[in-house]
Amino acid sequence: MLPRAKIREVLTILQNHYGSTTTALRYNNLFQLLVATILSAQSTDKQVNKITADLFDEYPDAESFLKLSENELEKRIKSIGLYKNKAKNILKAADKLVNDFGGKVPDSREKLMELPGVGRKTANVVLSIGFRQDAIAVDTHVFRVSNRIGLAEADTPKKTEEQLMKNIPRFHWSNAHHWLIWHGRQVCKASRPLCSECPLKHYCLYYQELKPSS
Q1: Which of 2, 3, 21, 45 has its CA 20 to 30 A from that of 13?
Q2: What residues act catalytically?
Q3: In the CATH scheme, what is the code of domain 4-21+136-210?
């Protein structure tokens, strides 16, 4: 893992490159953000946005979603990975929101994780983006990039989140989550990272291991 001083420098570089970037998911309310985030697991934001554009126009909130049968929702989202489980969980979550939370998305991690299909990552996304709370959501990009660079040294998303919370100032948590996602999409890709173009290569532990010794 990188020392604290270098972590601060890495964060400054990421901030300079990605600034105030936020999620690429499109939504008009907290329920739509929740649904889009559930759908985004093992899919791309671009594909999710294609599906939800019409879906959210027709069914904008939890109550209206309950007009859909599980089979109908499956058909609407079948181009998304794990669509059968997601359809089932989204409708169960909508039902719980309507009956237990007055149709409103709760603003605590514990309550969010009571909803079917909502794990810690999804809950943190909703808290961070929807409620402006300090949170780090560790998706595949954040997990890969933070461990490659040396912001964390962990073998699970939960441990990665815990280490990032210690290594990144709290006021940067939500922004850093987006910086790492965009860096993972644009530069630090899973199979062919663009190390030669990376502004962090002089800090990155992964790059230092790959770099031929002189």
Answers
A1: 45
A2: 121, 139
A3: 1.10.1670.10
